[in-house]
Amino acid sequence: MKIEKTRRFLLKHQAVFTSILAVILAFAMVGILLLSTGRNPAEAFGYFIRGAFGDMFNFANTISRVVPLLIAAIAFIVGAKGSVFNVGIEGQLLLGALASAVVGWGIKLPKVIHLPLTLLAGTLAGGLYALIPAWLKVYRKVNEILSTIMLNYPAFFFNHYIVLNVTPLEGVIPATPFIQETAKFAKLVPGTRLHAGVIVTALVVVFAYFLLKKTALGYEMRAVGLNQEAARFHGIPVEKRMMLSFFISGCLAGLAGAVEMAGVHYRYLDQFSPGYGYDSITVAMVGLLSPVGAIFSATLFGALKTGILDMAVYTEIPRQLVTLINGIVVLFISAKSIIQERFKRFVKGKDPASLAEENK
Amino acid sequence: MESNFLEIIGSIFSLSLGYATIRISISIIFASMGEMITERSGVFNMGVEGIMLMGAFSAAVATHFTGSPWIGLLVAAVVGVLIGLIFAFIAITVKSDQAISGLAIYLLGVGLSGYLLQAIFSHGGNTPKVETLPMIHFRFMENIPFINEIFNDQSVLMIPALLLPVILYFVFYKTPWGTWLRAAGENPKALAVVGKDPIKVRYIAVLAGALLAGIGGAYLSISQTSLFGEKMVNGRGFIALSAVIFGNVKPGGVFVATLFFGFMDALQYALQTVIPDQYFPREVFMALPYIITLLILAGFIKQSSGPADIGNPYEKESR
Question: Which phi and psi (to 5°) does residue B206 adopt?
Fold first, then answer.
């Protein structure tokens, strides 16, 4: 029967539908908020679509926003799969951007070496910083959500100090000097922010996919994420794998910062990140912690970032709407279990008995 | 040269540093005392920063439109409770991960206060200047040295802030409510056995904590300054979390920890005016609360443990 088939399909992919439902609910809530503050949600939506995808330039800008979001989201996913909840991506990303900016500015090398070296510096800076909460979690049993969110502040203060007092200031904006031409990503579409870092992003997605799905190491990391005791029983070195998950997560976070620096700003700009680190958590959770899912959700949130710029210009709708949407989405995602419960009940035709059966 | 140096030291460690310490600490005292209540009941609310932001924002807005900072204060408390209710529902009733729920509340606070600020005032990153809560002047203090310089002419909110640790000490250890509260955090099943609902106790504790965080936020916008600016809480919510950990989830300890962090912040400001930045990285002071907290968490600084059941949802049937 056709209905039965749809039903089974819906139940099989209930996680995906729950995630989509949570996002829709969150957006409905945002719509209500827009209405109640005297803004027209339909008009806002129109400008948002136009601003994000309307023409070649807007689309290119949207993709350029997807770049740091997606890399950072992958960073979060690699951690989360290995039972590491890395909320410190923001701090690791900032340090990565600074380290790469220093390398990109301070040394002179041919392009083939300079750009990779610049990215590597950022990657390592993020990874090394992540080793602090990693060690705290693995060997001192410190909740990493708390430790990583706290470590975001010292990272920011450190960068602030370096930019103001160590590297030479050019002009009044707190920033490092511009990097050498050899350390920059080429622009893909002139006049937009879209740069060759997109290629790096694609590589990161492929890397994460293969690491998690196709390698023994990735299998072990995921085993630790699923059940530590069972993993230990099977001879997997749980502590080492957790440290590794955290390190790779930090490395990718640092890389996200480095790519954004070498592709868009060409220097470390104090406060250049509009919270990419925090956004990446939303992106990763909406994408169901899958590298492929993250492509879709990163596109959605990247589009939000550019779409809202247009919206803010034409409709008096504040650009802070993005952060608000983020908060509401995370809220709904964290309350996902009730949505999922309702979803199951709805699909099954409100039969509590069979629902109880299913839960067993 | 030497007398010059002494003069500088003297100008830093003057009584005005004590005054500034209290002034800076008041908002964090409300937040940390609130978080302490919440954590005692077995719930860890990482969203304090977000609640403080909404408290600060709603206080400034209500004061702007009514002209009365007292109404602003009341509105901030109510808004704090409402956001606390969202958190409590997700963390306690839905039993989501408390840390993720807290993160959601933090992001919600940043986004909602930022959005509404722009939506209502559409210009700049802050509200217009608003009326502030009165400062209080004690006649009797005038002749008492030290006390006068440090405690006189502070915000009226200093009084409840200084009384809170004492009141909470009595509530925690001398009343049945305190026993129930601590039982909810230590052994909720035992509490259920004596006929008290741990879920209800945790709800009340979360709401009380959120109310105080809202007031702590309000202090920032309608007393310490006279407007709300985007992201003005600036990490104080996380400092409050740190203070609760540093102070071992006990009224006296948390109070002292909060004053210590307040003092560090005041010192940092004072140093900023006399020593050029390149010789003295004030960022070190700003990062200090976070670093100290991590050292405590790592076990480098001895601490007895907090509530046993913290972070775990209460399950009625099983376990």
Answer: -65, -45
